[in-house]
Design brief:
By secondary structure, the chain is α/β, with parallel strands linked by helices. The chain is about 35% helix and about 25% strand. About 45% of the residues are buried.
């Protein structure tokens, strides 16, 4: 079979040498130009130019995303997705290719994700006409929310007749080059909660004349953390985290206002809704107890990442036992989940941890970095999946 011969050639020679250089240089070029959210002019231009140099026609989507397609014998398509945006983090890796966009950084591996998908597009461009069409989705605004939803709202999945979608995320909690696979729930649903306590300010020497917003807020935080043990089924993990409290301005004044900012995470939508309803109930009780007014605003973010069971079985068949590990669910979140609400999808983690090289820092750390050799594994992963799905 011609594809088999091509695959063997690429894996043993070209991928080890020519692709290695391309992967390294592409990743480092992208790493130096991190941009945020939907505002990705340099990143979009880079990806667009690379795809068009490979012979693809491109379509702009979601303000700063890019779509490319390799036509197959069937118009029905399989999609592979990469996110594109960086984070508002000041880089501290001391790498020779550090960010040139001061205050922004690719601290979540999106530079690597784009690099792997561009290399896969290059590989596909060299192959005979595939049995199914292959769509490459380069998506903005994964970190800030909205990128995947906007692509879906624009009708990309329907217009390109996409039947399933795959994605990879670099992950420093797995050993370098090891794939993390999971059937069913891989990542959590997440959301944000903003709680504002309105009390009545007064002098600290006359607390009976006021209504202490700080005291009420303190009780809220304490009770929020009791939710896990008493209101949520312990077989369904969930997290409420209070990350910020702002209140007061002077040591001798009873505070009239307190602002609480937190996050919610759960592995299923029912548990997530229980978190929200319990917070509302706690707030009503504290309102009555302390004679304050409490405003609560929830911002629902990403649904849970639910890997299709059938796709999981096909993916596992593509790898040897020592090339992957079966993961436990993560309380992280990813907007890849929006695609999975529409079509079957499969999301994988690719390990970057290498203690000898110092690649141990977590995602979103100003010191997060990885060795580009792992990107060859990502490229090979996409190729093996395409082979196992009998696309090529």
């Amino acid at each position: 079979m011609q594809y088999r011969q091509n695959l063997k050639t690429h894996m043993n020679t070209e991928l080890a040498y020519a692709y290695e250089t391309t992967l390294r240089d592409t990743r480092r070029a992208l790493h130096q130009i991190p941009e945020l959210g939907f505002d990705l002019p340099r990143t979009q231009a880079f990806v667009k130019a690379r795809l068009e140099s490979l012979g693809y026609e491109t379509q702009e989507t979601a303000q700063s995303g890019i779509i490319a397609k390799r036509e197959g014998l069937s118009s029905k398509a399989i999609a592979f997705r990469s996110d594109m945006d960086g984070l508002p983090i000041l880089e501290n890796t001391n790498a020779p290719f550090m960010s040139t966009n001061y205050g922004n950084m690719h601290a979540c591996g999106h530079d690597g994700h784009m690099t792997m998908l561009l290399a896969f597009a290059a590989f596909i461009a060299e192959q005979p006409t595939p049995r199914q069409s292959i769509v490459f989705i380069f998506q903005p605004a994964e970190e800030t929310g909205g990128g995947a939803k906007e692509i879906i709202h624009e009708g990309i999945l329907n217009n390109y007749e996409i039947e399933s979608v795959f994605g990879i995320h670099l992950f420093p909690e797995l050993p370098e080059g090891v794939l993390g696979l999971k059937s069913g729930t891989l990542m959590a649903q997440d959301g944000e909660v903003d709680v504002t306590v309105h009390g009545l300010g007064t002098h600290g020497a006359q607390p009976h004349l006021g209504r202490d917003a700080i005291l009420a807020a303190s009780h809220l935080v304490t009770q929020y953390h009791s939710v896990m043990g008493r209101f949520i089924d312990p077989r369904h993990p969930a997290v409420i985290n209070v990350g910020s409290i702002k209140s007061g301005g002077s040591r001798n004044v009873v505070s009239e206002k307190a602002e609480i900012e937190g996050t919610l995470r759960a592995f299923d939508e029912a548990t997530y809704e229980t978190l929200k309803s319990t917070i509302r109930r706690i707030n009503r009780g504290v309102e009555a107890s302390f004679n304050v007014q409490i405003d609560t605003v929830f911002k629902d973010l990403y649904p849970p990442v639910e890997n299709d069971v059938n796709l999981h079985e096909r993916v596992v068949e593509a790898f040897n036992d020592d090339e992957y590990t079966l993961m436990e669910p993560l309380l992280l979140a990813e907007d890849f989940a929006y695609y999975q609400k529409e079509i079957p999808g499969y999301f994988m983690m690719l390990g970057t941890r290498n203690e000898r090289k110092g690649h141990t820092y977590p995602l979103h750390s100003p010191k997060f970095n990885f060795d580009e050799s792992v990107l060859k594994t990502g490229l090979e992963t996409y190729i093996r999946i395409a082979d196992k799905l009998n696309i090529l």
